[in-house]
Amino acid sequence: MSDKAFKDEKENINEMNSANIEDIIGELLIKNKLTISTAESCTGGMVAARLINYPGISQVFMEGAVTYSNEAKMNRLGVSRKTLENFGAVSPETAGEMAWGIAKTSRTDIGISTTGIAGPGGGTHKKPVGLVYIGLCIKGRVMTQELRLDGDRQGIRISATIKLLNWLREELVNSFK
Predict the structure, then answer these.
(1) Strand 36-40 vs strand 61-66: parallel, antiparallel, or unpaired?
(2) What angle, 0 to 180 degrees and rounded to 10, lies between the N-to-C axes of helices 92-106 and 70-77?
(3) Domain boundaries, the chain
(4) Residue environment code for 67-100, b if the CB has 16+ CB neighbours within 10 A, otherwise e
(5) 3-class DSSP state for residue 127?
(6) How far is CA 105 from CA 19, 21, 54, 118, in A?
(7) For 89-116, what is each residue's pLDDT tens digit?
(8) Sign of the four-CA dihedral 143, 31, 65, 47
(9) CATH T-level topology, domain 3-176
(10) Does residue 169 sit in helix, strand or coil?
């Protein structure tokens, strides 16, 4: 784990009164009877793995899909070929379609997604290493966020996972208490 990712993780845990983020999310999902599924590209299953840390999550966690290729994004999640051609795999449009697609195909209340450039290669001037888009689809409402992360490949992936889970936690707390 990179120093930055470790620092971010430590800050997130401290913000939540030393509770694990997956515990808070798991409790809120179960309490509110909300099902969830994940669609991941650059994080490669890390988000699902964190959620699965919570005992009893099987009541609400339906599935996780690692859709690394454009073909997988189209075939598994229904991401539009036009979206990928016009905006690219690393875009808010793709992150939103991924979140919506996994929720729809898994028949879950919530779909969450990650797509980005973890490096060390693959970055461009317009889309540098560390650019990640995260998506949330909660009961049909789709939202995305752009992240600009620093660090090595693993650090970027860890930071993206933490940022997405923290955002999900915030949305659950604000919407469902």
Answers:
(1) parallel
(2) 40
(3) 3-176
(4) beebeebbebbebeeebbeebebbbbbbbbbbbb
(5) coil
(6) 32, 26, 23, 27
(7) 999 999 999 999 999 999 999 999 999 9
(8) positive
(9) Maf protein (3.90.950)
(10) helix
